Structure formats: C-alpha cells, structure tokens
Amino acid sequence: MSNLTMNQTARQRVVVPVLHQSFEDTLSVDGLFGRLQTVVSNTRKTHPELTDYHLHDVALRMEEGELRAVLDFRK
After folding, report:
1. Domain residue limits, the chain
2. What is residue 51's DSSP assignment?
3. Which terminus of the chain is less hemmed in, N or C, by CB atoms within 10 Å?
4. From first to last of its 75 residues, what are the pLDDT tens digits of the chain?
5. Where are the alpha helices (DSSP H) in the chain?
C-alpha cells in the first residue's frame, strides 16, 4: 500500500456557486435539484481530473450572499 493516506488519493473537493446574489426569484426544491445537476455537470466538464470519481456528498452554504455547493468527489 502507498504511503499516501486514503484522503489524499481518493478524494477531491470543489466549491462552486449555485445561485448568485442577483437571483431574486423563489426557487422550488425541484428547481434547486435541477440547478445542482447542472452545476455538477459543468464542474465535471471543467475539472477533467474528476473522471474517475463519483459524487459522494453535496453541502450547501451561504457565503457573501451567494449560495455555494461543496462537492465531495471520491473514487
């Protein structure tokens, strides 16, 4: 087994914006799920190193008036 820990070899975390401050409409749960699917798809396109990873977890947080997703990818 390698000297690297499991976290170093099998985990990638990416923080991406979901909704910007300028978004003023009410968002339904279905709308949020649809938006998250788009965000994950776009993240995979812009981060080709994630090809061998699956999406393990999504955490949402508000930061500077913007909704952001913390995408946790694992092998």
Report:
1. 6-74
2. T
3. N
4. 334 444 556 899 999 999 876 666 777 899 999 999 999 999 999 999 999 999 999 999 999 889 999 999 999
5. 6-10, 29-46
